[in-house]
Amino acid sequence: MVDASLIVFIGVLTTIVSVLTKLFGLPDQIRKNWLKKSTQGVSTILIVLLCLSYALWTLYGFLKQDWFLIIGHGMGILTTGIIIYQIISYRKKNSKL
Fold first, then answer.
1. Each residue of 10-42: b (16+ CB within 10 Å) or e?
2. pLDDT of 18 higher than 70
3. pLDDT at 96 over 70
4. Contact yes or no for 30/87 (Cβ under 8 A)
5. CB within 8 Å of 68: residues ≥ 6 apart
6. Is residue 95 pLDDT above 80, yes or no?
7. Which of 31, 6, 85, 22 is nearest to 58 (CA)?
8. What CA–CA distance (Å, rounded) separates 77 from 55?
9. CA proximity to 84, closest of 36, 29, 35
């Protein structure tokens, strides 16, 4: 049987790494898109699947009442949601030109 403190430690570590990924990786992409006013080169399918994955993991976290999952993946919904918004809005603007 696995020690409960090890499970908590792994949960905390996983949440920290997950949050850092969403604080540095995806916001960097958001910033680049915003500066270019374009999402050219961004994979729409990948971003939509990431958002769906984050949403499902967050829902699962709520159902299990697991704050590690809720926090770690909930932030992913926000960041990928912003990128999806950028994809839609920038592609609409660029198609009008």
1. eeeeebeebbeebeeebeebbeebeeeebbeeb
2. yes
3. no
4. no
5. 11, 12, 14, 15, 61
6. no
7. 22
8. 6
9. 29
